[in-house]
Amino acid sequence: EGFRWSVSKDSARSIWLGLELGAALNSNSQRLKLLQQLFADIALKVDDRARDKILSTNNEGIAPLDEREDGHLCFYEILANHYVKVPQSGRRILELIVQLWSQSFAANIFALLFHRWLFEVPLEGKEVSLRYSSALVQGATNVFWIDIQTNTRYFLPLYHYLLEEVALVPDQLIKISPQAGRNLFCLLSRFMLFYDQDHLLTSFLGHFPAFPNSFLVGGAADYFVIELTDQLQKLKVEPVLLHYLSRNR
Description:
Blueprint: H1 10-25, H2 31-42, H3 48-56, H4 75-85, H5 91-99, H6 106-120, H7 126-150, H8 156-167, H9 170-173, H10 178-191, H11 201-206, H12 214-217, H13 220-234, H14 238-247
């Protein structure tokens, strides 16, 4: 069984995360299983009563219920908010994740827990930023594909943040490496129709970063179409493909 979450226990949750990551680090035979279970636990939706209690209190940084397209709140959103408010509480978690970088689900867990921390907490050194920004894009790619494969929207809040609070905010985008920034825009292009965010397409294209080979490929719209076309060719889930096509009119 996964961890039994209790409301308003952010520090306890963080301690538990450290214990689970430590267990994964120390167990070669169970590492993948433990990381997979940990990922599943933090991606869980909070039950409605707990959600209402959390959102009714002063939880600045967590979108209120009336701004949520599906009405759900996931545990990773609570933890991501906690690591911005109390950055030191995430240091041990980060150290453990870094030691597990090469493992499946490590980048996914990092992206869910620390996507806001990466942009809202000052970091020391470009090397650190480069390492984290690459893991962010990789982890986000992985979790968005999980939503595609299951035709769910568990990770819509992560997409929302990366689009509206990073890609469309130049002062935030420069906090990651130029290559990671370009990769992020390509990633967001692929999933924009899936997450129904095409109303922001014009603004998104206006913020598209310059690409080294743009003189061969063309402008922002050309890159968007290339990424979207490639995405459509990879889709295997019929309802998802139909959803893309319904938005692509």
